Please model this.
Amino acid sequence: MKQLVRYEDFAKLDLRVGKVVECVRKEESNKLLRLTVDFGAEGKRNILSGIYPSHKPEDMKGKQFIFVINLEPRKLMGEESQGMLLCTDDEKLLPLKPKSKSAPGTAIG
Model:
């Protein structure tokens, strides 16, 4: 288990439902996908995620997942990632999904 955090720190995270509208493999990488994600009123963002080859671009497009959208942007292989896709960290990374269809940008918690 990682270090305990205070609720106030956890509450700073902005978790949202996002719909993947475009997904391509980052050619220079063995595991990165570039997801263009619609967050409704929050707009669209590019998010890089290291889930390839267990998840292909065609498996992601049009689906909804849970993202952290208020992380500082981070450069990965020369490209800015503007958030993070939440996944379980098991033998195969499994992106977290809302239980039922939600409007893009719906806040979690």
Q: What stands out?
A: The chain has a mean pLDDT of 96. The chain has two helices and nine strands.
